[in-house]
Request: fold
Amino acid sequence: MDIQKELCEWFRKNHRKLIFRENKDPYSIWVSEIMAQQTRIETMLPYYENWMRDYPTIEALANAPIEKILKSWEGLGYYNRARKLHEGAKQVMNDYGGKLPSDVEELEKIQGIGPYTAGAIASIAFDLEAVAVDGNVLRVITRLLEIEDDISKPATVKKVKNIVSEMMKGSQPSDFTQGLMELGALVCMPSVILCDQCPLNQKCQSYAHHTQSLFPVKSKAKKSPEYVFMTLLIIKDHQILLSRDDQDGLMKGFYRLPQYEKMDLEGYEFIKEYKHVYSHKKWIMKLYEWKKGKLPEDDYVIWKDIDELKVIPIIGAHLKILKEREVCQ
Reply:
């Protein structure tokens, strides 16, 4: 199916004017693609602008301390993305002379760059016929061709990649790749489907058969497990007790409030229950404020001046609590 002309013309006329599209700098595209993963564009834009101001080059990013980088990412979520960007920047400095390679296979060797990001960088920055299949593209293609395969399965993703690879041959790769992404973001959305605005509606099988709502096909995710914690707010003499216990594998390098599944709460006052949902688990945090009870003495706790909360990275679930309790801004 030939969709190049309609798709590319539509993209050039209708795409959003986004700051990371102002040039084809590979580093800018790399950062924007990583930030946009599992994050709304409106949410990531201010982070992107601040990031490019603080780390305008791959060299600047590679030389920055990880704690500063994590602080820059604070609130954006999925913090491993920031760590991988940092590790990747160091790798690019060491192995590629500070410049991202244009070859897809070489790009995939860099920390944090998987097949999708490699394809996006190669096609958008270097105009190579490289495929980048994300959720938007999967949705557009499965509706376009009424593909009934489960998109959560690797075999389906591979199938769609092969289809897109054939479709984009001889096209302007940058416009084609971004066109598919943008079509999924603005027109062929998950719940709202604006078929009358779609440049491909006359070629779309689900539009012809009125089956748009049936695609894409995806198996239901398993219910995330819940974990209940006693989360402690301990402030004394303008200092706050924090913890660096990241044994759960979440957000290594971040500070958090001390929290435990079991502890003696005598001398603590219950304040409020909070919930925070991660991609694979849910935290239920029962917040207790210290009055005169026994203080935690494990190896992970550390006193910090409250003013330091402005510069040290804190996990999002607890940062929300600290802001609501007006401990920090």
Observations:
- The chain is about 40% helix and 10% strand.
